[in-house]
Amino acid sequence: MKLTILRNELNDAIQHVSKAVATRTTIPILSGIKLDASPAGVTLTASDTDISIQSFIPLETSNKTIATVIRSGSVVLTAKFFVEIVKKLPHEEVHIEVGDRFQTLITSGATEIQLVGLDPEEFPVLPTIQEDQVVSIPGDLLRDMIRQTVFAVTTNESTPILTGVLWNLQEGIYKFVATDRHRLASRSAPVELYDVRFSNIVISGKTLNELAKIVPDQNVMVDIVVAENQVLFKLGNVLFYSRMLDGTYPDTSKIIPQSFKTELVLNTKALSDSIDRAYLLSREEKTNIVRLMTTDNGGIEISSSSSELGKVTEQLTVTEMRGEPLKIAFNSKYMLDVLKVIDSDELFIGFNGAMSPIIIRPNDHENSLHLILPYRTTN
Amino acid sequence: MKLTILRNELNDAIQHVSKAVATRTTIPILSGIKLDASPAGVTLTASDTDISIQSFIPLETSNKTIATVIRSGSVVLTAKFFVEIVKKLPHEEVHIEVGDRFQTLITSGATEIQLVGLDPEEFPVLPTIQEDQVVSIPGDLLRDMIRQTVFAVTTNESTPILTGVLWNLQEGIYKFVATDRHRLASRSAPVELYDVRFSNIVISGKTLNELAKIVPDQNVMVDIVVAENQVLFKLGNVLFYSRMLDGTYPDTSKIIPQSFKTELVLNTKALSDSIDRAYLLSREEKTNIVRLMTTDNGGIEISSSSSELGKVTEQLTVTEMRGEPLKIAFNSKYMLDVLKVIDSDELFIGFNGAMSPIIIRPNDHENSLHLILPYRTTN
After folding, report:
1. DNA polymerase III beta sliding clamp N-terminal domain spans which residues (chains A, B) (predicted)?
2. Whole-number CA gyration radius for chain B
């Protein structure tokens, strides 16, 4: 392998694939990045076997030569140092040449780097995926759907299926659900392909966080290919492969109440600021418990207390209130997580007494739905 | 105590003094901030007994009322929650009222906070300092002098005196020195007061880092008052008190060579970039060892190697080279620390062979001097 490539384009590709490099592994090859040079272009691949990312660098784009491949070939370079050094190379042109026993010489300006390369034959082969089930959705929407659900997955590895986000696609509605048994977040969006449908696909929350980082800011379409136990995301020149989580996701549809004894409509930011202040005090108690109470004048009161420090009490006006008076306690951190991702100025909150789930959704649309279990307290 | 005060001005004062709040203490009063309201204004104080910071809020500045004191008095409030909540209060006006047993009521907009207050009589009394020895220096210069020396203090508590920066003021030259026995950083500057002189004053590096954070960005003068075992920094409405470290600082003047066998003059940024790349590889070996070698063509070569990863070699041209050929190894992290703070485009480096200290200073002035001991290696 022998090639010349522009530093910035090489660095961009490295940054993309580096998210799949195994950081804690006893298998040295997995801590590397594979480079393949062919007459078509240069391909970088990294894989920790759960996720694999491949980035393709074409030889040229409109009027600009990015890479010149003098001799095709492959090598695997240990990622840790390679990722750091490329962005600091002194010249915009980088020459890479692989010699005997994968010894790799990288030169740029007056800098010369000799790296011990590894045999590319040992590198894991990417899964072959049949492209029967393909959904295209805007990158922005995918990022939003991830952001609005992934925070609710559990970090507790004793229920591995709940560390993932459930995907369903039925009758043109694409839906994400996440729950850690104390709360639930769901987000749905219409997609234009009616002949694709799937259910019980669960993708690790960690993987989705990594994916969200490499979805480009520009509004591009992401193709999502669903195969037997793998999902492939196609983002322009970047391919992102992820395993699905094994197991059956619990049925959460039955725990969502359809009617409420108390209903509130109120300003999202006002509630968020108010709960944030009460949270600050509740945090000192480690419990994060905040109370919400309807008041006689048709508003609500938010409060929290700490035996050592004192008490915070907040009066809040609401846009609408319907139904019974209410007094309820909940984990304010869970509520703040929801209020952070709800993309609507006004929100609806439904209650069925102090012991039943709290439902929060935007007041003007039904694409998001959040559930929080109350904290069961007697006073 | 009963007063009304503007949130932002209260918050600024809290941010200043909070740096002196004791974070790990078994004495509850030290984890608090003391508020004193008098007809002259409002004073906030925090102290961990090593450092104490006091910030004074006047009742008004040019045409603007900042605070109205309705009833004088004092209280101590636990810092942790107080620091967080004040910046998040909903209204720009904050009312504070202290009741029985120091119960404190803070109201702002529709937010009401009841805090358990502590008895201000238990709060440490600030040292009384005689203002005989006062030096005035520009805040920018003080911050530079700290930044250019403090990184070289030791973090090893077995030699407590070396965790501080040595100050000397002799014949109108104010000098800072720091060393951890492997390297030394010194910075001097002329000051205008010739009748003040002191020596062997050592201030903790941690304290100086905290001080640097509250020296304002605008070019204001800082008054430094040196007393028996305390130093007081006056920064406008903020007073910063620090204990001196006990003990005698070692005499470092004899280890600075006055002549060199090899001398280099070269571009600071070019050397810094080059060593940074070699450092990246040396870091993987945990040793940080980088080699510098003069070359036959009158330049230098910077290199490092890792048994597992490979080798980096850099060719560098220099502005001037005088004296004997040289081959030396050193800790690249120490060299990068120096190159980060040297405020000159070109620097001078003097050597006396592979086993003797390396001296680095700006090429165009002698206000800074850095020393690094070489790594003694045989190859």
Report:
1. 1-127
2. 26
> Do residues A229 and A201 touch, judged by C-beta distance below 8 A?
no
Which residues of chain B neighbour A306 with C-beta distances below 8 Å?
81
Whether B377 and B351 have beta carbons less than 8 Å apart is answered as no
Determine whether the interchain pair B313/A88 forms a contact, defined as Cβ–Cβ distance below 8 Å. no
Instruction: Please answer yes or no on whether B110 and A85 come within 8 Å at the CB atom.
Output: no
Q: How many CB pairs under 8 A join A and B?
A: 93
Which residues, at least 6 apart from A54, have a Cβ–Cβ distance to it below 8 Å?
Answer: A17, A43, A44, A45, A126, A238, A239, A241
The answer to whether B183 touches B202, Cβ cutoff 8 Å, is no
- Dihedral angle computed from the Cα positions of residues B6, B8, B10 and B12, in that order, rounded to the nearest 10 degrees: -160
* Residues A224, A137 contacting (CB under 8 angstroms): yes
Nearest to B316 among A110, A115, A315 (CB): A110
Q: For B71-109, how does the pLDDT look when each residue is reduced to its tens digit (9 = 90+)?
A: 999 999 999 999 999 999 999 999 999 999 999 999 999
Q: How far apart are the first and last CA of chain A?
A: 73
Task: Write the burial class of residue A332 (CB in 10 Å: 0-12 exposed, 13-18 middle, 19+ buried).
Answer: buried
Cβ <8 Å between A284 and B80: yes
CB atoms within 10 A of CB B48: 18
Q: In terms of pLDDT, which residue wins out, B365 or A161? A: A161
Six-digit token string for A2: 């022998």
Taken in order of first residue, the domains within chain B and their CATH numbers are: 2-122 (3.10.150.10), 133-253 (3.10.150.10), 256-372 (3.70.10.10)
Alpha-carbon distance of B69 to A341, in angstroms, equals 42
pLDDT of A1 strictly over 90: yes
Residues of A with CB under 8 A from a CB of B: 78, 80-81, 84-85, 88-90, 104, 110-116, 273-274, 276-277, 280-281, 284, 306, 308-316
E strands of B320-374, at which residues? 320-323, 327-331, 346-351, 358-362, 368-372
Distant-in-sequence, close-in-space partners of B158: CB < 8 Å, separation ≥ 6: none
Closest CA to B215 of B118, B157, B141, B125: B141
Residues from chain B that touch A314, judged by Cβ atoms under 8 A, are: 110-112
- Residue of A33, A115, A301 best to disrupt the B interface, most CBs of B under 10 A: A115
Phi (first) and psi of residue B203, to 5 degrees: -115, 135
Q: Using beta carbons and an 8 Å cutoff, which residues of B are at the interface with A?
A: 78, 80-81, 84-85, 88-90, 104, 110-116, 273-274, 276-277, 280-281, 284, 306, 308-316
Query: Are the beta carbons of B90 and A273 separated by less than 8 Å?
Result: yes
Quote the mean pLDDT of chain B: 94
